[in-house]
Write a structure and sequence with these properties.
homodimer; Neurolysin, domain 3; 2 domains; 3-stranded mixed beta sheet
């Protein structure tokens, strides 16, 4: 075997072990008995120790030094392995294991504090998580910004400066659009009624199928905070159900199906290699968000969904399909990011970006977080946060140490805007098929243009290749302005 | 830290990783999408590679050589670690990983062949599994019998000679008892009716609670072949449902609860150490079988169950509680081991023991297995096997390579007979409480006498300590003869 073959064979087992670590997280959020939390922390730490030892194995460095890639695919494999190796060797094994242990247990503590509406129960844990991630960032950053070192793990190539520039490009037109919408005379109807859990889940399954989710390689379960998990032939999704608010479940499902279809759509030749998973969280979110919004909240698709809901639940309080489309896309300030409309969504992300950047830089202490959150929310959304689960306790991310993750949601939205523009130009029949509940012309194009490549190209590169143009904020803003001008007769 | 502390800290991570491997098996049998089977094989092989490397780590040998245990607990820890290390170093890593990979995938192939009633679909896989386990046994046996080397993994200290002697001690009185029962004039009623799945599962949960299963550290799911999984604070059970045959579900559940309560009952100080799990499969089966049979199929408990079933399902076809007890304990030849009455059960095990011993020694080829099974079944049970799922395809064990496991069921029955004798002498109020659906006086005694010790004592030793006498076949046979004399008026 060549050096490259040795390295890739070694990496194959590392990737398989990383899949196991992901499956443990899935289990923790969906199946694990609550009394197992501490033990699970030990298990996660042990597995992280194994992964860290493999990533920092001196042989990996030697193989990388000696390896001569035969083609672009091998070159990409080596690029990923090198990045992972160079990152891992900077982090002490003790720290890597401690982060795994603490964040595993922290999740349960966050969930309890959230249920009890009691931030004080969570703050000591959050302080510990922040301290560990700061320590990790300090080991990684080489004198640069701590936050950049964390961000780079989710979005290679992005920096807090590039993210801030993106937000600067979005905010003025988003705020202006919001003002025009909130000042308009139209108010979409509210959907009222009772939508039983079992039927919501049944319709969720239909929605997943409509978007091409492969059930033979996945499954759907309930979780407090919906997520998608796994790569290759075992890609699982989760959703949640509120019986008075069916869109929560349906659009969470479609969002996670976007993530899952990306993973399922990757070239099977890349299975258990560094190319066999989504290339970055920004690109991942581009898939979840285009499925959820540009496709799932489009007039053709909501028309089909309207019919499905009438079949499933009987007559709806919103009887007209156009009115239903407006209801699905209703713009209003609200506390919860995951339930936010497309106009407010990125404002939620900007708030988190600024706060987490300050937590990581040390400018903000965790004990001051709630006050900072609430003040900022009042400023940006004009509302006083009425309870912690509507404020700083709403998201799971910080409990599991995901600092630097939030901006990738907006990056994903920006990429989704670009991909949607290119898709519409390339595949004119998208809407006609969506109106019949068939998203496959759209998802086939996304698979061919982007998903199948997995980690072959750099994040920005794969979006540029798929679109045929360099991504920017423009297409997303154009799309939002056009869409809401129609709904709100602006 | 002392050498012992270093060794036990290292072992702690190994135990945590072994727990993860067990959780993966649980997932495979309960949750995994079918398309993930091949990938899962790779994941299991990768994790087995890690475990094998840790068990064979030269530092473990050095620590063991230098370690001076401070007390009996540490001495027991070291004994287990030494046994595991000495065993592992004889097995090449390649072989350990290949066994993990092949048996992971084989399970799905077995399930498909069983559903299709087509042994030919399974035979090539079975041949591969047999060949791998023979290779492993050859590496381990040091010139002794191949089968003994495998048996030792499930029941340290047992040999095929000791097992054969146990069967010789059982068979004559069991066969004689069976003949008397089948020749008697009494025929217990058959329970007929439809018992919906959801209600069977609800009653299963009540049964698990009645036996003291701790739900905060476990959960109940469905599986093709019921099993219990995990140690410490995450011990999960599975059952299955046939809507016409509720006893299948109920007694599978109680059986698995017995296994699970053993794991949950171990001293928490042993968590993630070699003492933190059941000491052998024979002792494990003693717990599952005493819960299922001597307690769960007793007249007091079936009286309570009868009431519970009437509450849950309405009037039963067997209206009288004494008649119901006879129905639960009805003796009749049948194809399926897991559904066998207490008299026939061990005859099923003897059949498997003889066949698997011959498969491992090479005296029987897998292509001749079906014929050998069916001939032996006709001889022992007087019935012609009517389909493969009633014959050689009924059990999952061989597909996952568990050669040497079956005899531990009968060993467990023998131990259960002894434990029951000692329990009845020590705790006179057992029956009175069972009649109210409360098994805790019995399970508390078992926990105190046996379960809490985990791996502290050798298998036979812990049973002897619990009983106050050396185990033998006598108490089981005495119990069976007395019980069925009453039911069948012999």
């Amino acid at each position: 075997m060549s050096t490259v073959d040795d390295l890739i064979a070694f990496q194959r087992e590392t990737e398989a072990l990383a899949q196991i670590a992901g499956r443990l997280e899935w289990d923790q959020e969906t199946m694990m008995p609550r009394g197992a939390a501490e033990q699970r922390g030990e298990e996660c730490a042990a597995l992280e120790g194994v992964l860290h030892a493999r990533r920092t194995d001196p042989r990996v460095g030697e193989w990388l030094d000696a390896a001569k890639p035969a083609d672009a695919v091998q070159a990409a494999q080596l690029r990923h392995i090198r990045r992972s190796h160079e990152r891992a060797v900077k982090i002490p094994a003790r720290l890597a294991q401690e982060i795994a242990r603490v964040t595993s247990v922290a999740q349960g503590i966050w969930a309890e504090a959230r249920a009890a509406e009691d931030p004080a129960k969570f703050l000591p844990t959050l302080a510990r998580v922040v301290a560990l991630r700061r320590e990790e960032a300090a080991a990684l950053c080489g004198g640069g910004a701590l936050y950049d070192a964390l961000l780079d793990d989710y979005e290679p190539g992005a920096t807090q400066a590039s993210i801030a520039a993106m937000f600067d490009g979005l905010r003025p037109r988003l705020v202006a659009l919001r003002e025009r919408i909130l000042g308009s005379e139209r108010t979409p109807d509210t959907l009222t009624g009772h939508f039983p859990k079992a039927q919501q889940l049944e319709l969720s399954r239909r929605l997943a199928s409509a978007f091409g989710y492969d059930w033979s390689r996945g499954r759907l379960d309930l979780a407090v905070h919906p997520f998608s998990s796994g790569s290759g032939h075992d890609v699982r999704i989760t959703t949640r159900v509120v019986e008075a608010e069916p869109f929560n479940c349906f659009y969470s499902t479609i969002h996670e199906v976007g993530h899952a279809c990306y993973e399922q759509g990757i070239d099977p030749a890349y299975l258990l290699t560094p190319l066999g998973q989504g290339v970055s969280m920004g690109v991942h979110e581009s898939q979840s968000r285009i499925y959820e919004n540009q496709l799932g909240r489009s007039r053709p698709f909501t028309g089909w969904l309207h019919g499905q809901m009438q079949d499933m639940f009987g007559p709806l309080s919103v009887a007209d399909a156009d009115a239903f489309h407006a209801t699905v896309n209703r713009v209003q300030p609200g506390f919860i990011r995951t339930e936010a409309d497309e106009v407010h969504y990125n404002l939620h992300v900007m708030l988190r970006f600024d706060l987490e950047r300050d937590l990581i830089s040390g400018a903000l202490e965790v004990q001051d977080l709630e006050e900072a959150w609430n003040a900022r929310f009042l400023k940006d959304f004009g509302q006083q946060v009425d309870r912690p689960s509507h404020g700083m306790l709403q998201d799971v991310h910080w409990s599991v140490g995901l600092f630097g993750y939030f901006p990738t949601y907006t990056l994903g939205n920006v990429y989704a805007g670009c991909l949607n523009k290119a898709l519409r130009a390339a595949v004119p029949e998208v809407d006609e098929n969506l109106s019949r509940g068939d998203a496959t012309p759209a998802t086939d194009w996304l698979r061919t243009q982007l998903q199948q490549h997995g980690g072959l190209y750099e994040p920005r590169e794969v979006v540029t290749r798929a679109c045929g143009f360099a991504p920017s904020e423009g297409p997303l803003l154009d799309y939002l302005e056009a869409k809401f001008a129609e709904i709100y007769a602006l």
